[in-house]
Amino acid sequence: MSGTFPLAFSVTSGKGGVGKTNISINLAISLARLGKRVVLLDADFGLANVDVLLGLTPKKNILDLLQGASLRDILFPTPYGFSMLPASSGSMLSLSTGQKFELLELVSELEDDLDYLITDTGAGIGDNVRYFNLAAQERLLILTPEPTSLTDAYALIKVLKQAHDVESFKICVNMTPNEKDAKNIFMRLHHACEHFLSGVSLDLAGIIPRDTEVRKAVIRQLPFCIGSPGCEASKALARLAATISEWEVPKHLDGNIKFFWKKLLFREN
Ligand SMILES: Nc1ncnc2c1ncn2[C@@H]1O[C@H](COP(=O)(O)OP(=O)(O)O)[C@@H](O)[C@H]1O
Ligand SMILES: [Mg+2]
């Protein structure tokens, strides 16, 4: 993809436990299988678990980066075709706005060497979640058919729209028993946004079925796209990756802005 910019997108949710980290990892693998260069940033500080789900133990993490280690030292190549920027669980429950900005500045140095930067955010509508959603060019919001996931997703969209004017959201429905339920929950969110949050645009990007292989993969600490490549969840992830590879990548950006929307970051303060 030389000559184009990478795309930075977040994988996010209002409610916890909806599958963000599993989707981030398996999406990174699926995009890598399409020949894309992918970096996964673990931005769920405090509950970081990308490395746990991968069964890997990187020696350095984002905290070391902020303390002066070089990005190349922190970037951890996984055996699955993508690299990760690990967080350190528990030891940095909150980053200051300055630290978050510095982190994104440092990560921006990678822009010539990657096609996708995936940010696995925490859940909720707190400071970190808002910040990384705002910084990303796209947001992949994970929903499940549970009513609480719907209300929490709506709350996140509302705060991003009203406080930060973020209007574009890609939706992925996870853990669904069938396609009909997935479309139904998506339409409910769509109607609520249409009624109460004028200007917000939602696009159904993917549907991932409830699949027993996902839980098994978590226990084995081996991503399901690797351990069970033929399972329904793996096939759904391959379709999601194909859809994402069609998303438009910005062609020209202000030279100082690079691939994060730094203007928006400044506006938050
Ligand atoms: N498609 C799925 N089918 C079955 N179980 C799933 C699926 N996606 C996620 N899970 C279950 O949900 C749990 C939470 O997933 P995780 O990716 O850690 O969520 P989050 O990062 O949003 O907190 C996993 O441990 C797994 O057992
Ligand atoms: Mg997670």
Automatic annotation (TrEMBL):
Record-level GO BP terms: negative regulation of cell division
Gene Ontology cellular component list: cytoplasmic side of plasma membrane; cytosol
Pfam families on file: ParA (PF10609)
Record bears the keyword Zinc: no
GO molecular function, one term: ATP hydrolysis activity
Signal peptide: none
Keywords, in A-Z order: ATP-binding, Cell projection, Cilium, Flagellum, Nucleotide-binding
Name the record gives this protein: Flagellar synthesis regulatory protein
The organism's taxonomic lineage, starting at the top: Bacteria, Pseudomonadati, Thermodesulfobacteriota, Desulfovibrionia, Desulfovibrionales
